[in-house]
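hey so i finally got around to running the thing on that chain from the lab meeting. sorry it took forever, my laptop kept dying and i had to restart like 3 times. anyway pasting the input first so we r on the same page abt which one it is
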Amino acid sequence: MTRTGSKETFLKIGFWIVFPLGFFCLITGGCAIWKKNPSPIDLSPSALEEMNNGAYTVSRVVDGETLELDSGEKVRLIGIRVSKEAVEFIRNLVEGHQIRLEEDVQQKDNDGRTLAYVWYLAERQVPSKIIAPKTSEPFMDESYEDTMLNETLIKSGYAQVMTVPPNVKCQELFVKLEKEAREGKQELWK
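ok and heres what got predicted. didnt touch it at all, straight out
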């Protein structure tokens, strides 16, 4: 009887050790201790940027239509052609700052640059100041808003529309903004 009792005890103990370990491996996608060559963690600059909520830092403005990120990746602004005067304007808006990228259909151009609509935080154009409520609760700073750089350049008259299919998602908006910039005699259209 002792032999059978020890066998049952062994099975019970084995169950309580193997079952949780198997369940853990199931929910985590596998056990590294059972893998001969576990895959390494990708610590490349682009992978780290992606883990950072899709935010990238602009290290420099190359030529107005191209931004270089801290990772070395180059980004070409979709749907526009900028003027020479735009370079300094763009530097003041995004160089050294974080941006987000929004893709369209085609993700890379013939030069290997990432094609994107670029979003940055810009000061909100509000006529009056925001007043904090008289409580100890923190309040949301609404003095900045997410703004598309491509759109800002057209509105300000520093760029004109240059649509290259298949990246046409914002074509209608860009054409409308260029017309308004021309009528308002902004920069290029003075």
